[in-house]
Write a structure and sequence with these properties.
With about 190 residues, the chain is mainly alpha-helical. Helix content is about 75%, strand content about 0%. It is globular, with a radius of gyration of 17 Å.
């Protein structure tokens, strides 16, 4: 039975899981390869640029062509507000330095690992929705969007794992967190 014969929900789940597995690649890179802060920042910038490019060139154009400008604006504003509120709540509840890859994170910092998991969940839901919705149109998954999701997740796993490693988190904790997120998050 070929993949395209599988139920769409299962195909969407597998594409989302595959895209999220790069979080583990990033975390493993941070643990196995000694990277400086500048290199880590450069990798993070590259990942961000890839995702922004895919959104700007692939998704926004398709959304505009299908539904017009209003849903794009409403979705962007609603998503930004939801992310800003979640970010504020996580920072306020003890995970202020969760995004830092230097010595700013501490093992005793409350909620650091949970904050990263919440951020990945928030990040992964729209990514997986986009991959899944593209299957509903019958055209298959956009290779550009999939590549952007996959490549942008590498720096996410890398930078936070580097910070947790510098903060003294155990290898089991870091890899436990980053293997659990892709396999358990509802967005994946």
């Amino acid at each position: 039975m070929a993949l395209h014969d599988w139920p769409i929900w299962l195909q969407a789940g597998l594409w989302g899981l595959l895209g999220a597995c790069s979080l583990i690649v990033g975390a493993a890179t941070a643990y196995l390869v000694p990277l400086g802060t500048r290199i880590t920042a450069g990798i993070m910038s590259f990942g961000c640029g890839i995702l922004i490019s895919a959104v700007a060139y692939d998704l926004v154009f398709e959304g505009f062509r299908s539904a017009g400008l209003r849903p794009i604006i409403i979705g962007a504003i609603a998503g930004s507000i939801a992310y800003a509120i979640a970010n504020w709540l996580v920072s306020r509840n003890g995970a202020r330095h969760r995004k830092r890859s230097g010595q700013q994170q501490t093992p005793s910092e409350q909620g650091g690992g949970l904050a990263i998991a919440i951020g990945s969940l928030l990040d992964g839901i729209p990514e997986s929705v986009v991959l899944g919705v593209s299957l509903l149109g019958g055209g298959g998954v956009s290779l550009a969007v999939f590549a952007a999701v996959f490549l942008s997740n590498v720096p996410e796993g890398l930078s936070s794992a580097a910070g947790m490693k510098n903060a003294g988190r155990s290898k089991a904790y870091v890899f436990g967190l980053w293997t659990t997120i892709p396999s358990c998050a509802p967005g994946y």
